[in-house]
């Protein structure tokens, strides 16, 4: 086994890899950018090196710097995680060619072959794996595309050779669309992948996305760990993944697993990988191979009990896979929910900000892969993922029941998250039935339902507004010794628990409930005659909507006077003990 592994990544996957290293007795080396000085992966590692400024292109993608750090640190292997350099065959080759360094991933040659889609299709076809009807060579011109349209029937897809994730894919529904689609597929291929070569496939209208996890060692053993269903996607972004797929029966499951195994064997592949398929009408078709550990590898780990990252490291170190295909059993069901700092009610726009509250769920059936803690900032430099909630159960129904519990108890304040979206899905008939295809969200997701979900289940405080225009305040009250959570909507009289020294309402002093003073424009005025008990702000202070500016006692009640809108305090014409009349100005804001 390696002595020291450099993890060329950040966030939850870097910590996941380091956890496996730790268990194998390897020391860990983190790399980080200026934006990640306080990153969870930096804290976790045994040692850490700054590899450059915040933009990934100047840090996490700086191949030379990362290899240089590996040498300086005396690491003997590099694990790339997912994203960044993980599928870069040139980087893999540089690592392979560096003395005393091992690449924890597939051979660079296999990465290169499988990264080119027509080559990958050829390899799979040679292994007897069904591929989507189409070409295994790039197409030259529009006439050739039209001839293929005739042959397969429209619609067809023109795909960029270097493509993936929906980039550089154009759907053509008739002969008339061929010229434009060909041109834009070429343009996108060139722009994204530096390769304007394109090929053609028959286009399947509403397939399921099924992918098979494979592991292969350097002794000729190839195993598959069953499939994951990643059909629930939004604009090519996976949001929920699960294992096993609710859409496969055991026959199809066996066939697709064996096909993946055969394909990987043919490609001379080693280490972990994923073979992606489209499944429609009981037929499966090879789509592409992902030559990395994936975000959603966790659900396969949960249902097989096999630690995929541990095996990545062991296989790279030359170990032989210690289990036979027959030893791999799928036990129960697991679902992964991506918890992203995004606002589902605002087209899933990222909402960077501070996790002012971060309280994930716990207890049976829950796994949380993350690298954050309460108080951390979710920055805007990289992806918006906060973490991954993985829920396991005896079967899919059980897993869904547990998921409801888990998501209900996942409390995040300060940023918007995808939690309300997930909770909406758990009430969604099509998803619950497992009938969703890759087209489902893009066709059926209802903006009103999303907005209602965010209203109901979203944060009460979030940077950048909540997208709904409303703010709510929650307070807890005890009535006859029973607790009640009360939601007070903005603009209505607002109850609070009162100040600590008179809390509970049972003392002989002032009772605790109160009303808010509503500011008119820039002045916060007294809504009733009374006495100022305390003043909470000074000139120059910044206040936010809902902040208490002073406490006014009137009619034996303590009233928290709150700002209706945020601003800078301009003046405070009152002091403690003052008597004020209704309408008197208490605080003015700039
Ligand atoms: C397809 C397809 C239907 N037919 N190819 C989208 C991402 C890219 N890697 C391949 N993709 C697709 N290729 C043929 N011949 C439908 C998709 C597709 C899709 C695939 C998987 C998951 C979600 C998807 C959403 C839209 C389209």
Automatic annotation (TrEMBL):
The organism's place on the tree of life at top rank: Archaea
SUPFAM superfamilies: Glutathione synthetase ATP-binding domain-like, PreATP-grasp domain, Rudiment single hybrid motif, Single hybrid motif
ATP-grasp domain segment(s): 121-317
Key words, A-Z: ATP-binding, Biotin, Ligase, Magnesium, Nucleotide-binding
Domain Biotin carboxylation, first and last residues per copy: 1-446
Cofactor(s) the record lists: biotin; Mn(2+); Co(2+)
Domain Lipoyl-binding as annotated: residue spans: 515-590
Protein's name in the database: Carbamoyl-phosphate synthase L chain ATP-binding protein
Alphabetical list of Pfam families matching this protein: Biotin_carb_C (PF02785), Biotin_carb_N (PF00289), Biotin_lipoyl (PF00364), CPSase_L_D2 (PF02786)
Transmembrane parts of this sequence: none
Recorded GO MF terms: ATP binding; ligase activity; metal ion binding
């Amino acid at each position: 086994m390696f002595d020291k592994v450099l993890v060329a990544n950040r966030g939850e996957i870097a910590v996941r890899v380091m956890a496996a290293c730790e268990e194998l007795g390897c020391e860990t080396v983190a790399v980080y950018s200026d934006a990640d000085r306080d990153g969870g992966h930096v804290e976790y590692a045994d040692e850490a090196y700054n590899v450059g400024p915040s933009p990934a292109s100047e840090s996490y993608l700086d191949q030379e710097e990362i290899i240089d750090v590996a040498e300086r640190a005396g690491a003997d292997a590099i694990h790339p995680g997912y994203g960044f350099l993980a599928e870069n065959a040139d980087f893999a080759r540089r690592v392979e060619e560096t003395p005393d360094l091992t690449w924890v991933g597939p051979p660079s040659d296999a990465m290169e072959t499988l990264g080119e889609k027509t080559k990958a299709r050829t390899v799979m076809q040679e292994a007897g794996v069904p591929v989507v009807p189409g070409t295994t060579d790039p197409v030259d011109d529009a006439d050739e595309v039209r001839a293929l349209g005739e042959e397969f029937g429209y619609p067809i897809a023109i795909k960029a050779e270097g493509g993936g994730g929906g980039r550089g894919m154009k759907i053509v529904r008739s002969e008339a669309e061929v010229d434009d689609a060909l041109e834009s597929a070429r343009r996108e291929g060139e722009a994204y992948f530096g390769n304007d070569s394109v090929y053609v496939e028959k286009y399947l209208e509403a397939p399921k996305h099924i992918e098979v996890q494979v592991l292969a060692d350097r002794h000729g053993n190839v195993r598959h760990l069953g499939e994951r269903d990643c059909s629930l996607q939004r604009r090519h972004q996976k949001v929920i993944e699960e294992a096993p797929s609710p859409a496969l029966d055991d026959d199809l499951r066996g066939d697709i697993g064996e096909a993946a195994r055969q394909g990987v064997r043919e490609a001379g592949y080693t280490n972990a990988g994923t073979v992606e398929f489209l499944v429609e009408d009981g037929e499966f078709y090879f789509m592409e191979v992902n030559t990395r550990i994936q975000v959603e590898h966790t659900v396969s780990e949960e249902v097989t009990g096999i630690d995929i990252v541990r095996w990545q490291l062991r296989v790279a170190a030359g170990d032989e896979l210690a289990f036979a295909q027959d030893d791999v059993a799928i036990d129960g069901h697991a679902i992964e929910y991506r918890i992203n700092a995004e606002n589902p009610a605002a087209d899933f726009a990222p909402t960077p900000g501070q996790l002012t509250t971060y309280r994930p769920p716990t207890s049976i059936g829950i796994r949380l892969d993350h690298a954050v803690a309460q108080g951390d900032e979710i920055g805007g430099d990289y992806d918006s993922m906060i973490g991954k909630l993985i829920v396991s159960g005896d079967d899919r129904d059980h897993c869904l029941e547990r998921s409801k519990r888990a998501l209900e108890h996942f409390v995040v304040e300060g940023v918007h998250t995808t939690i309300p979206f997930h909770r909406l899905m758990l009430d969604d008939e099509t998803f619950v039935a497992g009938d969703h295809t890759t087209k489902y969200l893009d066709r059926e997701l209802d903006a009103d339902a999303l907005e209602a979900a965010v209203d109901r289940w979203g944060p009460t405080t979030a940077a950048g507004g909540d997208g709904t225009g409303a703010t709510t305040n929650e307070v807890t009250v005890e009535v006859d010794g029973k607790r009640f959570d009360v939601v007070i909507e903005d603009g209505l009289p607002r109850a609070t628990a009162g100040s600590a020294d008179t809390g509970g309402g049972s003392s002989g002093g002032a009772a605790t409930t109160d009303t808010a003073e509503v500011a008119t424009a820039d002045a916060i005025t007294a809504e009733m005659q009374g006495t100022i008990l305390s003043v909470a702000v000074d000139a120059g202070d910044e206040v936010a909507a809902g902040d208490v500016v002073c406490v006014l006692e009137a009619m034996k009640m303590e009233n928290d006077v709150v700002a209706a809108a945020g601003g800078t305090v301009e003046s405070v014409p009152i002091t403690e003990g003052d008597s004020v009349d209704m309408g008197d100005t208490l605080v003015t804001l700039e």
